[in-house]
Design goal:
The chain is built from nine helices and 16 strands. With about 475 residues, the protein is of the alpha+beta class. The strands form four sheets. It has a six-stranded antiparallel β-sheet with strand order 5-6-16-15-11-12. Strands 7, 8, 9, 10, 13 and 14 form a six-stranded antiparallel β-sheet that branches. It is elongated, with a radius of gyration of 34 Å. The N and C termini lie far apart (about 85 Å).
Length: about 475
């Protein structure tokens, strides 16, 4: 005979009850029909012990009390009794039960709370965790780390990749089966294919650069050009040009590409002829400006179909490094930094922005912190393009007294390391000898910071390294 539960109020009319009442004095409700309250025990104790399969509710062992501070948790009972330590088991070794207490069948997939197993698919761009799984996109919002791609259509040939190659098309980088349409999407899984300029890397002798689309922009509007040559006396010279397309302009990606190529070609042609590097940098910026201006020279019929388009535009920054001289040139807000190999020596920013914030600081109307906190801070006052007010190339020459590296970058990087000291902290210590790896690290720093813009950085060691020498 089951023991009658001790109730203080009738579950039917909620009137107070006397101890030992079998029936409610107010409504006559039979109190013996009320089931006993189950023991409030967890299904699986926190010390790792597991209840017997199919055990009724309330029959599970109570979790042991927490040990005092500094004491070890007691070992689970082993096969030889409570005093013996139990075997170490993996989570997969423990039997599981469903919500009704029945044993799960073999091969049952892990519960939803378990991290998904690695699978081929499209991975979220999130940092990997020690267990090999990407970090969650946000607190309280569970998302899979990978979305499985649609299976290949069985109606296509058994080797669609070979068929796509035979038809002259590209094979999808995601499903490795479908052919890529002219619009850049896979016919099989619909995955958008990466474009050539989404991520670019180049190493030219001792100089290296990396450019990335970032995490927010739909295309990469940055461009760079690298090169190495020799001066008339045979000493080496390194060249790096970085350009940032103006997003509010038409075809900014074309503008940055044309400017970087024109400037690099001008420098690599002028330096071997004996032109002074500072004059060569000035002429290179003029050549880049002409190349961007030419993009605006479209037929009148083209302008009739797009009357609201403005002229293509971009910013530019470049560096020429010789055995004893460092030259920088720029128009706009892309920057160059000096980071010495000996980090006890101070770093420096080598350029001054053509921007609203820089003008406010130069005029004494705001300090730098106030100016760059303003929403107008990044409005540029100088650029390359047919609608620029007046071309004013800036050049500067330096003679460093120690080895170092020149960081040539767009604002997609320096927004996350603005001061020279901040930039020096994120530049790897071996940047002068491993420029490509260091450029990747710097781009990663910007992406980890949010990647709100295209990111491009070139690293040029000083003094210049002879041709044929690269990163070790």
């Amino acid at each position: 005979m089951s023991q009658m539960p001790q109730l203080s109020a009738c579950p039917s009319c909620e009137e107070p009850l006397e101890s030992g009442d079998r029936f409610c004095g107010a409504c006559g409700y039979d109190l013996s029909a009320v089931p006993s309250r189950p023991q409030d025990n967890p299904t699986i104790a926190m010390n790792g012990s597991v209840p017997a399969q199919g055990a009724p509710a309330g029959a599970y062992p109570e979790p042991p009390p927490a040990p005092p501070a500094g004491a070890a948790w007691p070992a689970a009972p082993g096969p030889d009794g409570p005093g013996a330590a139990g075997p170490v088991r993996l989570p997969a070794d423990l039997p599981g039960t469903d919500s009704g207490g029945s044993a799960l069948p073999p091969g049952t997939p892990p519960p939803p709370s378990a991290p998904p197993a690695p699978a081929a698919g499209v991975r979220f761009d999130r940092p990997a965790q020690p267990g090999g799984h990407a970090a969650p996109a946000g607190a309280g919002r569970a998302q899979p780390d990978e979305y499985l791609l649609q299976a290949p259509d069985p109606r296509v040939s058994a080797d669609p990749a070979a068929r796509a190659d035979g038809a002259g098309g590209k094979v999808c980088v995601a499903c490795r089966a479908g052919r890529v349409d002219d619009d850049g999407y896979c016919e099989n899984c619909g995955h958008a294919q990466p474009r050539e300029r989404d991520h670019m890397e180049q190493e030219s002798g001792p100089v290296a650069a990396v450019s990335d689309r970032g995490l927010r922009h739909h295309r990469n509007e940055d461009a760079f050009a690298l090169g190495s040559t020799a001066l008339p006396d045979g000493s080496p010279a390194s060249v790096a040009i970085v350009c940032d397309g103006v997003s509010s302009a038409t075809r900014p990606d074309d503008a940055s590409l044309a400017a970087s190529q024109a400037a690099s070609e001008s420098l690599l042609a002028a330096l071997p002829r004996g032109t002074h590097p500072q004059q060569a940098m000035h002429d290179a910026i003029v050549a880049a400006s002409r190349a961007v201006n030419a993009l605006a020279e479209e037929p009148a019929t083209a302008r009739e179909h797009a009357p609201h388009q403005n002229a293509p535009a971009c910013t530019i920054v470049g560096a020429v490094v010789t055995s004893g001289l460092l030259i920088v040139g720029w128009v706009g807000d892309s920057r160059a930094y000096w980071v010495p190999v000996d980090r006890s020596a101070p770093p420096a920013r080598l350029t001054e922005d053509d921007s609203w914030a820089a003008q406010m600081v130069a005029a004494g109307l705001m300090n730098e912190a106030e100016a760059y906190a303003d929403e107008r801070a990044h409005a540029i006052t100088g650029w390359l393009g047919a609608d620029a007010y007046e071309l004013e190339p800036h050049t500067a020459a330096f003679k460093p007294d120690r080895p170092g590296v020149v960081v040539v970058c767009t604002d997609g990087l320096w927004n996350y390391a603005e001061a020279a000291e901040e930039m020096a902290r994120v530049v790897p210590l071996d940047a002068a000898t491993h420029p490509l790896h260091s450029a990747r690290v710097l781009v990663g720093h910007a992406l980890d910071g949010g990647g709100h813009d295209n990111v491009t950085v070139a690293l040029v060691p000083f003094p210049a390294v002879p041709q044929g020498a690269g990163s070790a």
